[in-house]
Fold this sequence. Notes:
Layout: H1 2-25, E1 46-49, E2 53-58, E3 61-66, H2 75-94, E4 109-120, E5 124-134, E6 142-149, E7 154-156, H3 165-192, H4 199-212, E8 223-226, E9 234-239, E10 252-257, H5 267-270
Parallel strand pairs: 3-4
Antiparallel strand pairs: 1-2, 2-3, 4-5, 5-6, 6-7, 8-9, 9-10
Helix pairs in contact: 3-4
Amino acid sequence: MPWLCTFRLRALLPCLLTLLTAACNAPPAASSAPDVAGAHPLPADVTSISALAEEGRGESYEFHIRYPDLPPEWSALIQALHAYAAQRKQEFLDALPAPAERTASTPPAALDLEFDIARRTEDFVSVLARETMHSSTDTAPRIASFVMRTTDGKILSIVDLFATPDAALQALSDESRRQLEGRYEASLRQSAGDGNAPAPSLKRMQEGVQRGTQASVGNFSVFFIDGIDSKAIGLTLIFPQAQLAATSGGEQQVEVPAKVFYHLLKPEYRDAFAIDTAELKPGVR
């Protein structure tokens, strides 16, 4: 009978709707397919980064980088330090031997890089970077310096200070050679015992100092503007031992008073240095 069919259809509709709703809301079936090899990456190298330090380690290597606590307004200097650190870190990692070339006896490679404020005057701040590296082919310690004028955030190379860079480099060369030759000669004579250093030793020393202090930008790339919370009083030049072809004595620092180069400074930098005008007279040392 038609009315009976209609009644049965109406009775079945709620059941069908309930079944459809349950099917739509059911969670998807878990896949039974096995994990694909390599789908999960290997553990990453451990790296820790903060405002004042960066450390990392991986298979057969580690590095440690430490920064000075600098005010935010010295952003140009902060960026320069971090850029240098990133470059040195990348060069260190690129030089690591491939896993296939390592053996059980291969020592872990290590990079230690530290930045410290070396000088601070009224107008300049100087930061020194010292780096030591230990690897299967150890390299000599490396140093670098960063000098910024705090009034405008300009990062300076040594030639940026001077109106006539060639003349300034020659003046610094002459003064550095004078001081270093005297220092090394005194040491050689003391080592000789009788005060008479062997002529060949003196000659080798003089040749090494002359090459290491030639008037080129590269020979004077590591420097500070000297002074302590006041006007600058001069420059400190730093020479690695290898640069002077020395077999002992380590790194050498030469302090050059402002009177040696004051007349060669650019006008905008002269007021940053304290100088007694009497010292500028000819013949005064």
